[in-house]
Predict the 3D structure of the following.
Amino acid sequence: MRVQLPITLAPGSEPEPDFAIVRIDENRYSNRHPQPQDVLLLIEVADSTWKHNGSKPALGGHRTHKAQIYAKAGIGEYWIVNIKKRQVVVLQDPQDGLYQSEQTFTENDQIAPLLLPDVVVNLRYLIL
């Protein structure tokens, strides 16, 4: 688990997501940052960027700009935790720079990351 530490997506692109669950590296990433193939799950926390776009809610830069960057890099799963709405938006299946699957979960749900199916997260504890 990395907290607000860089990941390398492309030359010159090293975002610092709020949380990144990455594969274990024998050097503990002391000589490089995790790359897309190392990332199991990215999580960003949004507490004030919830916007409405027509009838569908949209999370400002999290759902647009950041999601496009992560999808283009091939990050398989990206969660956006919306504190104010007490929801988690799960984006999966990146293709052509866009996530093809989007699901919204509430604090009453439990979800497991695609690459960590045995890790079930009770959202009630994630969205305090």
